[in-house]
Sequence to fold (252 residues):
Amino acid sequence: MDKTVLAIFAHPDDAEIECSGTLSLLKKAGWNIHIATMAPGDKGTVEYNREEISRIRKAEAAEGAKVIGASYTCLEFEDVYIMYDRESINRTTSLLRKIKPSLVFTHNPADYMVDHETTSRIVMTACFSTGIKNLEIEEDYYEPIPYLYYTDAMDAKNILGQPILTSMFVDITSEMPIKEKMLACHASQRNWLLAHHKMDEYILSMKRFGEFRGKNINVKYAEGYRQHLGHGYPQDNILKEILGDKAVLVNK
Fold:
């Protein structure tokens, strides 16, 4: 198996918040890490115009990725207007075919923001489409379909406030300093979150949620996941196999 991971999310800082502890563990286990975003975060500001904040946030994302020796790619869609359409599926599938990941992470299908939910659907289709020969894109198709894992929903609830269950938690206690360092690279978001979400100290907020999830498996910090197990997708739990005791199955 090619030891390559793609973490693809809607916006810069999503991967850092949702799965960077696990990415750090995978890097230490010898996997190559790629982080991608659908959009550059062009609406995440009260200070800059779209071009300025896009440039800033993509630079921050690249710096965050460097912390674990990962690469960063932006697919250059637009915040709030991430759509499930031909262009988004083709461009995302092209990225997967270029990188050829064996393991993919993306947003939970149920989340607080439509950009996140739409990205989840796009990535699900792109994973399935890596082996579709007649898809009208330049990159050659490849098999098998990669393993696909959904990260925790923000605040562990859907838009109706109902809890989102996970099937596995990863103990990231040892990686929290790295996760914190990666998220700190996104300095532009502190003022934005304070103005728009009325939330300051977003690194501390991330750590509190990590502590909340850690209680599920009696560790200091954890990240939660569900594996996509639809027809045609791999059915064995490769993440558990790689991480061993660091990955704890629940809600089976």
In short: Residues 4-249 form a domain with the Rossmann fold fold (CATH 3.40.50.10320). The chain has a mean pLDDT of 94. Residues 26 and 243 are 8 Å apart (CA to CA).
